[in-house]
Amino acid sequence: MNPAAPGHSTVRDGTRPANPSGPEPVLQTRPGAAVLLAVLVVVAGTAVVAAHWPVLAAQALTFDDGSYLTENPLVQKPSWASASRFFSEVLSPSTVEGYYHPLSMVSLMFDYAAGARGDNLFPVHRTSLTLHVLNTALIVVLLYMLVGQPWVAALVGLLFGVHPLTVESVAWIAERKVVLATFFFLWALIFYVLFARGRRWGYWAALAAHVLAL
Fold first, then answer.
1. Cα dist. 8→11, 28, 52, 59 in Å?
2. Long-range contacts: 116-125, Cβ < 8 Å, 24+?
3. Which of 78, 82, 87, 129 could lock onto 113 through a cystine, CB 3.0 to 4.6 A?
4. Cα atoms found within 13 Å of the Cα of residue 144, Cβ hemisphere only
5. Alpha-carbon distance 48 to 54, whole Å?
6. Of 100, 122, 106, 112, the residue nearest 55 (C-alpha)
7. CA 26, CA 197: separation in Å to the nearest integer?
8. Which tens digit of pLDDT belongs to each residue from 17-65?
9. Hey, which residues does 120 pair with through a beta bridge?
10. Where are the beta strands (DSSP E) in 53-142?
11. Long-range contacts, 75-84 (Cβ 8 Å, 24+)
12. What is the 8-class DSSP label of residue 27?
């Protein structure tokens, strides 16, 4: 019995046969597809900003927003010393008890340096909305890398961007950790796709992005 017809590759012992034509292309592009994708990303991002625009004026503080921003002495003293404390206090964070979120706290520290206060939350919401728009764009790019259909990728990305379940992560100060984790996790997936398509450095980039997401 002939295990494979001429011109067909086989998979044995769980290994993938070598691709004689080299690594798979990162994007299955057609003429003008990259331009169309860029336009769709901009359109989706604009729609997300328009849908979430009211959040920029939100001034509500609730639950643990105080420990994250308005009552956090390290956030309110932007410095290398504060950043070092956020990263070094692994088991017993001194300002947000029980949660090790150094990147979130550092990002809020930058917001405070940009003018964020209890009566001016605009810088905080601006950063969260920016991250959410970037996450929408990353989803569009990731899906295009996987399916090669710019319209499908853009529509799914837009669905994510304007879905009501994402509003909380943009409007709630303490949920900065969600939009940040999503940002790095999507990069981890993109880098892994690059690794799977022959870019060996993609593995280590995906690992680094995954650690940042965690």
1. 10, 22, 51, 63
2. 116/69, 117/70, 118/61, 118/69, 118/70, 119/59, 121/58, 121/59, 121/61, 121/173, 122/56, 122/57, 124/69, 124/173, 124/176, 125/55, 125/56, 125/58, 125/170, 125/171
3. 78
4. 25
5. 11
6. 122
7. 7
8. 445 455 555 555 566 778 899 999 999 999 999 999 999 998 888 888 8
9. 117
10. none
11. 75/105, 75/108, 75/109, 75/112, 76/112, 78/109, 78/110, 78/112, 78/113, 82/109, 83/109
12. S
pLDDT per residue as tens digits for the range 60-92: 888 888 888 888 999 999 999 999 999 998 888
**Residues contacting 164, CB < 8 A, separation 6+:** none
Helix axes 102-113 and 176-196, enclosed angle (nearest 10): 120
Q: Do 33 and 150 touch, CB atoms closer than 8 A? A: yes
10 Å CB burial of residue 128 (0-12, 13-18, 19+) is buried
**Comparison of pLDDT for 159 and 117, the residue scoring more:** 159
Q: Which two tokens stand for residue 54?
A: 């009211």
User: Per the structure block, which two tokens stand in for 2?
Assistant: 């002939």
Q: What is the pLDDT of residues 133-154, one digit of tens each?
A: 999 999 999 999 999 899 999 9
Residue showing tokens 């709630």: 172
pLDDT for res 192: 97
Instruction: State the Cα–Cα distance between residues 212 and 109, nearest whole angstrom.
Output: 18
